[in-house]
Amino acid sequence: MKRFILFALILLSLSTAHAAGENRGCIVKGGVNFSNMVMGTMPHGMKVGGHVGAEWEYAFSQRLGLSGGLLLSFQGAKFELNKLNPIGHYFKTENGHAIESDINYSAIYFNISVLAKFYITRNLAFDLGPQLAVNVQNRFSSDGNKVLKEGRGLESMGADIVAGFTYNVTRRVVVQAHYSLSLTKSWNDYQVDATGTNVTYFNSDDRIQNILLSVGIRF
To answer: Over the stretch 97-106, which tens digit does the pLDDT of each residue have?
Structure first.
């Protein structure tokens, strides 16, 4: 987290060091997410969501720029029931019934990004930088019923790395393709009684990844 803040401050300081640049304005955008979890022990399937937000762009020169953005992002993953053993018993429905269908994990994030922009051409830029991911809501469900997860909690804040491209279709219409990967694990460490008599310690390393396809209007 300290490295994330330091890198963001360095990028932001560039705007005061280059006064002869070009303010390219604000982009209001929205689009679709394709997210899941990787690097952990649980079997994760892709979940389709969406995002909406805005970013401000500044060009220091023909080759280098900076953008700062804020996104409301709907992410998550899918857990296939037949692949959850031997950890499937950590899930239970709110009313105590057995779970009989796949589990959907839905999360809402506020994502705050600071991206360096490397202009390949006037209209095409490669974007790279850190993102602060603030988790504001989580929900597990199966066939529309709420599912409770025992033994482990969710991190409320994390840091991501973002990479991708921005293309100016016209002076006002912008399309983007970005990929983000969490640098911090999505779950807290936890311990459970796996058999009823013995305590099992589980160090999960699940990270959320997301592919974002966006269309924006520049003002």
So the answer is: 667 778 888 8
